[in-house]
Design brief:
By secondary structure, the chain is mainly β. The chain is built from 3 helices and 28 strands.
Length: 375
Amino acid sequence: MSNPAHTIASAGAAKLAAERTIGEIEPVFAFYDAMPTGVTVSHDGRIFVNFPRWGDDVPFTVGELRAGKVVPYPDAAINRFDPNRPGETLCSVQSVVVDAANRLWILDTAAPSFSRPVDGGAKLVAVDLTADRVVRTIVLPASVVLPTTYVNDVRFDLRSGTGGVAYVTDSSVSGPGGIIVVDLASGHSWRKLSGHPSTSADPAFVPVVEGERLAIRSEGNAPSPFSVASDGIAISADGATLFYCPLSSRHLFSVPTSLLLDETSSEADVASAVIDLGEKGASDGLEADDQGRIYAGDYERNGIRQRGADGEWKTIAHDPRILWPDTLSVASDGYLYFTANQLHRQAQFRNGVDQREKPYSLFRVRIDGGPVKLI
């Protein structure tokens, strides 16, 4: 007859099976101060990041990694928000993206802590990376920036029109999501798919992160859903298709860019062309490469997923250190860069207790592909 105590002791001493990692992620940088969201890499390997003003001490909202440090970019002055000059200074930046012409574009929400956007503050700012100076500012008007709007991520096609076009997601937490189209030459912009189910949080979605339901939690109150509209965005290698997803959903959607570019196209026509491409996992960031592949974070499973040209998904990185993969960026060096910022451990999800553990991380994983270059 076996001895139960001996059996338990033997099991404790044995090396037990555990979840396996997938792929090899390489640490690039560790952040010991404010929490980053966005990352982008220039054609010559410069790395830029941003820090939205969500409650952390954020001395500058856009920075560049230089010699093992993060320094304000393009300078400290523009990073000091002046409410009297909302279109000229940076308030709370959510995304930074280098375009095919090697310009850095800064997407300023002007909505710290998801507040109502400061009038005249939501904007796209282009920086010449050769001169390190601002060369273009496009302030987004009230016709596209609603009182509930939170501009989140952006992708570019520089072939459209005379100066190119930008596609921006509205990640509202209290109003309609949507896609904002910006003509870069004129600065004119318009909304598409505003409030459409594909740009809205899925009401049936219940996210589970690190084994617990992700919800807004405060002492003495019942948990409430964390509902975020259209967030991740990517453009196909040929520029014909825009991919996007709500943060509060597991589905990937697509729509032809031709219908978005036509300001006169009816909402019914655009809506009828939307395709639900099925489940991909719950994602914050999306990205695409020049091989026709789509990348998505999977914040419920600590992973990064890749959708092949045939539509099949596979996991290219799964690691317990991938704690909330946020922004994804394909670089010219054949790597996919991404931030892991523990967003789900913020105080609003943990009964007022901030459970994030510094440092936050910037990782990369080899993909043997390059960025989409529509120029």
